[in-house]
């Protein structure tokens, strides 16, 4: 931080007390996150009772509101400190960028545990609209100024507010292409943790293998690791989506090694053979599956093949539940997929994927300990990203010790 000459005031010096240095407040936050102290009131208490903190920030005692406002209003500055700290570690030769290990870690957000289902919200919105229409109809039929009609008007006003609230939640979820949304933190995703499903964030960490320092940290847009690999690597330098693996393999490095997971559609006891020369597929019973059509699924083009002899097949119950017979799809990435599967079976690839666990997994345990297993404290993607930068910075300094 000193080498990078990062130092800005938290406010403009016009009248009154001199503003606190941003450098001192960042040091206070780093100290706090290293020791699992993330509450602004707790950090304020440390400035008046902890001798180490008094020495660190030169006996200053900023109010808890000042501490809180700094973290909220200087997101880009905290990110800059985090990024320059990584550059400093690289300059010292502690990060060599020979091998990176990447993995995802689901963290609980500061939101209600139960998220709202968009499908149910749409149904609730329709029911509320129907109730409003019913009350309006009743008022039109009886226009007398009775107490009952006044209560109906109040009820209509309440229902209109409820309809607007539900409508805004649905619009927010649709704009982000989400099936679930949290009222308290609309940027949170529905993630599956060891404690069950809850509102949270999918953090992606990139760890260097030399001394296990964090070199990249991101919040994925989806709760599934399989769709976030490419974006995380791209953001770091400038689980298994073959489209992303191919991009990395061809655009960035052919040294990418990703643990392949079997699709839920695949059956280990059944094997299909693709005959590219004749544009057909041979099923496990030796029957021909003929080309039918092409379809687009999640940005990938598939060739669809269908078997016409499934009704009399002895393994039909294992192969498909469809009454129309088994349908088999071949991805446009088929050649690359076969090449990559063969590559991952090689001894050096197996060793590399085993080594990944020793590099990145322990980082998540340290993060949980620093968080006291309670997840993030802030709300909103940008603020949570700042907290992730602080945790990553704190982890790297702990590692440096």
What is the structure about, briefly put?
The chain has 401 residues and is α+β, with helices and mostly antiparallel strands. 47% of the residues lie in helices and 16% in strands.
Structural class per helix/strand content? alpha+beta
User: Which percent range describes the beta-strand content?
Assistant: 15-25%
Main sheet properties? 5 strands, antiparallel
Order of helices and strands: HHHHHEEHHEEEEHHEEEEHEHHH
End-to-end separation: 17 Å
Structure, described:
With 401 residues, the chain is of the alpha+beta class. 47% of the residues lie in helices and 16% in strands. Strands 7-8-9-10-11 form a five-stranded antiparallel beta sheet, with no helix packed on it. The chain is flat and about 85 Å long.
Task: Produce the secondary structure layout.
Layout: H1 22-34, H2 40-49, H3 51-56, H4 64-73, H5 75-91, E1 100-108, E2 116-117, H6 118-141, H7 147-175, E3 180-181, E4 189-193, E5 196-208, E6 214-219, H8 229-237, H9 242-251, E7 273-275, E8 280-282, E9 288-297, E10 300-306, H10 316-319, E11 327-331, H11 334-344, H12 347-370, H13 381-400
Features of the shown structure:
single chain, alpha+beta, 5-stranded antiparallel β-sheet, 4-stranded antiparallel β-sheet, 11 strands
């Amino acid at each position: 931080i000193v080498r990078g000459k990062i130092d800005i005031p938290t406010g403009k010096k016009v009248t009154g007390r001199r503003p606190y240095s941003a450098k001192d407040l960042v040091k206070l936050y780093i100290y706090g996150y290293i020791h699992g102290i993330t509450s602004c009131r707790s950090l304020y208490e440390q400035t008046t009772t902890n001798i180490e903190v008094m020495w660190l920030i030169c006996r200053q005692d900023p109010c808890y509101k000042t501490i809180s406002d700094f973290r909220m209003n200087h997101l880009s500055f905290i990110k800059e400190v985090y990024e320059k700290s990584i550059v400093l570690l690289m300059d010292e030769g502690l990060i060599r960028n020979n091998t990176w290990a990447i993995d995802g870690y689901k963290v609980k957000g500061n939101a209600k545990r139960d998220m709202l289902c968009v499908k149910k919200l749409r149904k609730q919105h329709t029911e509320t609209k129907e109730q409003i229409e019913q009350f309006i109809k009743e008022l039109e039929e009886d226009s007398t100024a009775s107490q009952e009609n006044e209560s109906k008007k109040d009820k209509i006003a309440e229902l209109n507010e409820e309809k607007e609230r539900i409508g805004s939640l649905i619009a927010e979820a649709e704009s982000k292409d989400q099936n679930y949304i949290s009222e308290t933190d609309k940027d949170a995703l529905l993630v599956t943790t060891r404690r069950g499903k809850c509102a949270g964030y999918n953090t992606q960490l990139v760890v260097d293998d030399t001394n296990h320092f964090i070199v990249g940290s991101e919040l994925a847009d989806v709760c599934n690791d399989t769709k976030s690999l490419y974006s995380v690597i791209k953001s770091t330098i400038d689980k298994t989506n073959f489209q992303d693996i191919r991009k990395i393999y061809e655009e960035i490095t052919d040294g990418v090694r990703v643990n392949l997971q079997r699709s839920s559609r695949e059956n280990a006891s059944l094997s299909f053979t693709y005959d590219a020369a004749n544009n057909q597929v041979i099923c496990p019973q030796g029957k021909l599956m003929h080309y039918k059509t092409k379809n687009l699924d999640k940005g990938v083009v598939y060739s669809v093949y269908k078997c016409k002899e499934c009704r009399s097949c002895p393994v039909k119950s294992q192969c498909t539940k469809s009454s129309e017979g088994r349908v088999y799809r071949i991805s446009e990435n088929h050649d690359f997929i076969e090449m990559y599967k063969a590559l991952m079976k090689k001894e050096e690839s197996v060793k590399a994927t085993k080594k990944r666990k020793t590099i990145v997994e322990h980082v998540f345990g340290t993060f949980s300990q620093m968080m006291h297993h309670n997840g993030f404290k802030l709300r909103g993607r940008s603020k949570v990203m700042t907290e992730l930068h602080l945790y990553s910075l704190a982890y790297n300094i702990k590692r440096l010790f």
